[in-house]
Design goal:
The chain contains five helices and 17 strands. The protein is of the alpha/beta class. A five-stranded mixed sheet has the order 3-2-1-6-10. A five-stranded mixed sheet has the order 13-12-11-14-15, with helices on one face. Strands 7-9-8 form a three-stranded antiparallel sheet.
Protein backbone atom coordinates (compact mmCIF):
# COMPACT_ATOMS: atom_id res chain seq x y z
CA UNK A 1 0.00 0.00 0.00
CA UNK A 2 1.33 3.43 -0.93
CA UNK A 3 0.71 4.95 2.53
CA UNK A 4 1.56 1.92 4.65
CA UNK A 5 4.11 2.72 7.36
CA UNK A 6 7.25 0.64 7.30
CA UNK A 7 8.36 -1.09 10.48
CA UNK A 8 12.13 -0.87 10.75
CA UNK A 9 13.86 -3.32 13.09
CA UNK A 10 17.34 -1.99 13.94
CA UNK A 11 19.74 -4.46 15.57
CA UNK A 12 22.56 -2.12 16.57
CA UNK A 13 25.57 -4.15 17.63
CA UNK A 14 28.98 -2.64 18.41
CA UNK A 15 30.28 -1.04 15.19
CA UNK A 16 27.64 -2.56 12.87
CA UNK A 17 23.96 -2.06 12.09
CA UNK A 18 21.62 -4.72 10.76
CA UNK A 19 18.17 -3.48 9.85
CA UNK A 20 15.12 -4.89 8.14
CA UNK A 21 11.87 -3.30 6.98
CA UNK A 22 8.43 -4.92 6.98
CA UNK A 23 5.03 -3.59 6.01
CA UNK A 24 1.51 -4.97 6.24
CA UNK A 25 -0.27 -6.32 3.20
CA UNK A 26 -3.70 -7.20 4.54
CA UNK A 27 -3.14 -10.01 7.04
CA UNK A 28 0.37 -10.72 5.73
CA UNK A 29 3.80 -9.18 6.04
CA UNK A 30 6.02 -7.97 3.21
CA UNK A 31 9.78 -7.69 3.50
CA UNK A 32 10.68 -4.28 2.04
CA UNK A 33 14.44 -4.56 2.33
CA UNK A 34 17.39 -5.25 4.58
CA UNK A 35 20.63 -3.43 5.26
CA UNK A 36 23.95 -4.12 6.93
CA UNK A 37 26.76 -1.59 7.15
CA UNK A 38 29.57 -0.54 9.51
CA UNK A 39 28.52 2.07 12.04
CA UNK A 40 31.28 4.11 13.70
CA UNK A 41 30.95 4.16 17.48
CA UNK A 42 32.91 5.33 20.48
CA UNK A 43 32.89 3.85 23.99
CA UNK A 44 31.69 5.62 27.12
CA UNK A 45 33.37 5.55 30.53
CA UNK A 46 31.79 2.16 31.31
CA UNK A 47 32.97 0.69 27.99
CA UNK A 48 29.52 0.58 26.40
CA UNK A 49 29.02 1.66 22.75
CA UNK A 50 28.01 5.29 22.30
CA UNK A 51 27.45 7.44 19.19
CA UNK A 52 29.91 9.91 17.70
CA UNK A 53 29.66 12.47 14.90
CA UNK A 54 30.29 9.82 12.24
CA UNK A 55 27.43 7.73 13.60
CA UNK A 56 24.86 10.44 12.85
CA UNK A 57 26.23 11.00 9.36
CA UNK A 58 26.12 7.29 8.49
CA UNK A 59 22.53 7.02 9.73
CA UNK A 60 21.50 10.14 7.81
CA UNK A 61 22.84 8.68 4.57
CA UNK A 62 20.83 5.52 5.18
CA UNK A 63 17.72 7.48 6.16
CA UNK A 64 17.63 9.08 2.70
CA UNK A 65 16.96 5.63 1.21
CA UNK A 66 13.81 5.13 3.30
CA UNK A 67 10.26 6.46 2.98
CA UNK A 68 8.96 9.25 5.20
CA UNK A 69 6.56 7.14 7.28
CA UNK A 70 8.46 4.78 9.57
CA UNK A 71 8.06 2.99 12.89
CA UNK A 72 11.57 2.52 14.27
CA UNK A 73 12.23 -0.33 16.71
CA UNK A 74 15.71 -0.43 18.21
CA UNK A 75 17.78 -2.98 20.11
CA UNK A 76 21.22 -1.97 21.41
CA UNK A 77 22.65 -5.47 21.58
CA UNK A 78 25.89 -4.31 23.20
CA UNK A 79 24.12 -2.57 26.09
CA UNK A 80 23.92 -4.46 29.43
CA UNK A 81 20.34 -4.76 30.72
CA UNK A 82 18.89 -6.25 33.89
CA UNK A 83 15.76 -8.38 34.15
CA UNK A 84 14.00 -8.40 37.53
CA UNK A 85 10.77 -10.01 38.75
CA UNK A 86 8.74 -8.18 41.40
CA UNK A 87 5.32 -8.59 43.01
CA UNK A 88 2.67 -6.86 40.92
CA UNK A 89 1.42 -3.54 42.32
CA UNK A 90 -2.16 -3.10 43.48
CA UNK A 91 -4.33 -2.75 40.38
CA UNK A 92 -6.21 0.09 42.05
CA UNK A 93 -3.10 2.30 41.85
CA UNK A 94 -2.89 4.81 39.04
CA UNK A 95 -0.12 4.72 36.44
CA UNK A 96 2.07 7.25 38.26
CA UNK A 97 1.67 5.55 41.64
CA UNK A 98 2.46 2.15 40.09
CA UNK A 99 5.63 3.61 38.62
CA UNK A 100 6.76 5.02 41.98
CA UNK A 101 6.02 1.74 43.72
CA UNK A 102 7.87 -0.40 41.19
CA UNK A 103 10.94 1.82 41.05
CA UNK A 104 11.20 1.89 44.85
CA UNK A 105 10.92 -1.90 44.95
CA UNK A 106 13.45 -2.25 42.15
CA UNK A 107 16.01 -0.09 43.93
CA UNK A 108 15.41 -1.92 47.18
CA UNK A 109 16.06 -5.24 45.43
CA UNK A 110 19.07 -3.95 43.46
CA UNK A 111 20.73 -1.12 45.43
CA UNK A 112 23.70 -1.04 43.05
CA UNK A 113 21.58 0.30 40.17
CA UNK A 114 22.66 3.70 38.81
CA UNK A 115 20.79 6.76 40.05
CA UNK A 116 19.59 7.66 36.54
CA UNK A 117 17.78 4.56 35.33
CA UNK A 118 15.78 3.69 32.22
CA UNK A 119 13.25 0.98 32.92
CA UNK A 120 9.91 -0.45 31.89
CA UNK A 121 7.65 -3.27 33.00
CA UNK A 122 4.96 -5.68 31.89
CA UNK A 123 2.93 -8.39 33.60
CA UNK A 124 4.57 -11.80 33.72
CA UNK A 125 2.43 -14.02 31.49
CA UNK A 126 3.49 -17.14 33.40
CA UNK A 127 2.82 -15.60 36.84
CA UNK A 128 0.09 -12.91 36.81
CA UNK A 129 0.91 -11.93 40.39
CA UNK A 130 4.35 -10.73 39.28
CA UNK A 131 5.74 -8.19 36.84
CA UNK A 132 8.90 -8.21 34.71
CA UNK A 133 11.11 -5.13 34.84
CA UNK A 134 13.89 -4.44 32.34
CA UNK A 135 16.35 -1.71 33.28
CA UNK A 136 19.53 -0.13 31.97
CA UNK A 137 21.66 2.96 32.53
CA UNK A 138 19.79 6.04 31.33
CA UNK A 139 23.10 7.74 30.51
CA UNK A 140 23.81 4.94 27.99
CA UNK A 141 20.42 5.26 26.27
CA UNK A 142 19.94 9.00 25.97
CA UNK A 143 22.88 9.62 23.55
CA UNK A 144 21.41 7.01 21.19
CA UNK A 145 17.95 8.55 21.34
CA UNK A 146 19.42 11.97 20.50
CA UNK A 147 21.61 10.50 17.75
CA UNK A 148 18.72 8.72 16.04
CA UNK A 149 16.44 11.75 16.35
CA UNK A 150 19.14 13.89 14.71
CA UNK A 151 19.35 11.35 11.88
CA UNK A 152 15.57 11.50 11.30
CA UNK A 153 14.98 8.12 12.95
CA UNK A 154 13.09 8.79 16.21
CA UNK A 155 12.70 5.56 18.16
CA UNK A 156 9.13 4.31 18.67
CA UNK A 157 10.10 1.19 20.61
CA UNK A 158 13.29 0.22 22.43
CA UNK A 159 13.41 -3.52 23.02
CA UNK A 160 15.81 -6.17 24.29
CA UNK A 161 17.45 -8.98 22.32
CA UNK A 162 15.90 -11.77 24.40
CA UNK A 163 12.36 -10.54 23.74
CA UNK A 164 13.02 -10.20 19.99
CA UNK A 165 14.52 -13.71 19.86
CA UNK A 166 11.53 -15.27 21.64
CA UNK A 167 9.05 -13.35 19.52
CA UNK A 168 10.76 -14.61 16.37
CA UNK A 169 11.07 -18.21 17.58
CA UNK A 170 7.36 -18.27 18.42
CA UNK A 171 6.45 -16.86 15.00
CA UNK A 172 8.59 -19.53 13.31
CA UNK A 173 7.13 -22.38 15.38
CA UNK A 174 10.45 -23.37 16.96
CA UNK A 175 10.53 -26.21 19.50
CA UNK A 176 9.15 -24.70 22.74
CA UNK A 177 11.25 -26.92 25.04
CA UNK A 178 14.63 -25.93 23.57
CA UNK A 179 16.52 -22.82 24.72
CA UNK A 180 17.45 -20.13 22.23
CA UNK A 181 21.11 -19.33 21.62
CA UNK A 182 22.17 -16.39 19.46
CA UNK A 183 25.93 -16.18 18.85
CA UNK A 184 27.16 -12.64 18.24
CA UNK A 185 30.13 -10.33 18.60
CA UNK A 186 31.71 -11.44 21.90
CA UNK A 187 29.57 -14.27 23.21
CA UNK A 188 26.02 -15.53 22.98
CA UNK A 189 22.57 -14.70 24.26
CA UNK A 190 21.15 -17.71 26.08
CA UNK A 191 17.38 -17.31 26.33
CA UNK A 192 14.92 -19.53 28.18
CA UNK A 193 12.73 -21.89 26.10
CA UNK A 194 9.35 -20.61 24.98
CA UNK A 195 7.67 -23.06 27.37
CA UNK A 196 9.31 -21.28 30.34
CA UNK A 197 9.13 -17.71 31.69
CA UNK A 198 11.37 -15.15 30.05
CA UNK A 199 14.96 -15.28 31.28
CA UNK A 200 18.31 -14.72 29.63
CA UNK A 201 22.04 -14.41 30.17
CA UNK A 202 24.92 -13.29 27.95
CA UNK A 203 27.90 -15.64 28.19
CA UNK A 204 30.44 -17.69 26.27
CA UNK A 205 29.03 -21.01 27.49
CA UNK A 206 27.58 -23.57 25.06
CA UNK A 207 24.17 -25.26 25.16
CA UNK A 208 23.89 -29.02 24.40
CA UNK A 209 20.59 -28.73 22.52
CA UNK A 210 19.11 -25.44 21.35
CA UNK A 211 17.47 -23.37 18.67
CA UNK A 212 20.62 -21.76 17.30
CA UNK A 213 21.38 -18.61 15.31
CA UNK A 214 24.55 -16.60 14.82
CA UNK A 215 25.48 -13.30 13.20
CA UNK A 216 28.26 -14.70 10.98
CA UNK A 217 28.45 -17.89 8.91
CA UNK A 218 30.13 -20.66 10.85
CA UNK A 219 29.75 -23.99 12.51
CA UNK A 220 26.63 -25.00 14.39
CA UNK A 221 27.28 -26.58 17.80
CA UNK A 222 26.41 -30.23 18.29
CA UNK A 223 22.74 -30.42 19.22
CA UNK A 224 22.02 -26.96 17.83
CA UNK A 225 19.29 -26.50 15.21
CA UNK A 226 20.06 -23.60 12.87
CA UNK A 227 16.94 -21.72 11.79
CA UNK A 228 15.95 -18.70 9.72
CA UNK A 229 13.69 -15.87 10.92
CA UNK A 230 12.38 -15.57 7.38
CA UNK A 231 10.47 -18.84 7.88
CA UNK A 232 7.79 -16.66 9.51
CA UNK A 233 7.42 -14.64 6.31
CA UNK A 234 6.90 -17.48 3.85
CA UNK A 235 3.29 -16.47 3.39
CA UNK A 236 4.28 -13.17 1.74
CA UNK A 237 6.32 -14.80 -1.03
CA UNK A 238 4.62 -14.27 -4.37
CA UNK A 239 6.51 -17.21 -5.84
CA UNK A 240 6.31 -20.36 -3.69
CA UNK A 241 8.91 -22.00 -5.89
CA UNK A 242 11.44 -19.33 -4.85
CA UNK A 243 11.39 -19.41 -1.03
CA UNK A 244 14.52 -17.29 -0.67
CA UNK A 245 13.10 -14.26 -2.48
CA UNK A 246 10.69 -11.62 -1.21
CA UNK A 247 9.08 -9.30 -3.72
CA UNK A 248 8.61 -5.57 -3.49
CA UNK A 249 4.98 -4.49 -3.90
CA UNK A 250 4.02 -1.40 -5.92
CA UNK A 251 6.22 1.52 -5.00
CA UNK A 252 9.35 -0.60 -4.68
CA UNK A 253 12.35 -0.53 -7.03
CA UNK A 254 11.71 0.99 -10.43
CA UNK A 255 12.46 -2.30 -12.19
CA UNK A 256 10.00 -4.20 -9.97
CA UNK A 257 12.68 -6.79 -9.26
CA UNK A 258 12.85 -9.08 -6.24
CA UNK A 259 14.68 -8.41 -3.01
CA UNK A 260 16.80 -11.51 -2.31
CA UNK A 261 17.23 -12.57 1.26
CA UNK A 262 20.64 -12.23 2.93
CA UNK A 263 23.14 -15.00 2.28
CA UNK A 264 23.10 -15.73 6.03
CA UNK A 265 19.48 -15.16 7.16
CA UNK A 266 20.13 -16.15 10.80
CA UNK A 267 22.01 -12.88 11.36
CA UNK A 268 18.75 -10.94 11.00
CA UNK A 269 16.79 -12.80 13.70
CA UNK A 270 16.81 -9.86 16.13
CA UNK A 271 16.04 -7.28 13.44
CA UNK A 272 13.02 -9.26 12.20
CA UNK A 273 11.84 -9.86 15.77
CA UNK A 274 11.97 -6.10 16.36
CA UNK A 275 10.03 -5.33 13.20
CA UNK A 276 7.30 -7.77 14.27
CA UNK A 277 6.97 -6.23 17.75
CA UNK A 278 3.65 -4.65 18.83
CA UNK A 279 3.20 -0.92 18.44
CA UNK A 280 3.05 0.03 22.13
CA UNK A 281 5.99 1.99 23.45
CA UNK A 282 8.53 0.54 25.86
CA UNK A 283 11.32 2.06 27.96
CA UNK A 284 9.25 5.17 28.56
CA UNK A 285 10.60 5.71 32.09
Amino acid sequence: MAFDRWRIGMDMAPDVLRALALSRDGAQWRCRGWWQFPLPMARDAQGDPCPMAGTVEALRRWRRQLPRRLSVRLCLTGLPVTLTRLPAPDRRLGETARGWYLESQLRRRLPSLPAALAWDWCHDAAHPERVLIVSARLSALLPWRRCLRAAGLPVHRLDIAAAALRRMARACGRHPALPLVHQCFSGAYHVAPLAQPLDFVFSTASAPACNFTRTEPGTVPEGGELWSPFDALRAVSERPSAPHVRWWPGGGPADGGPVPLPDWPAAWVIAVGLALAPEERLWSR
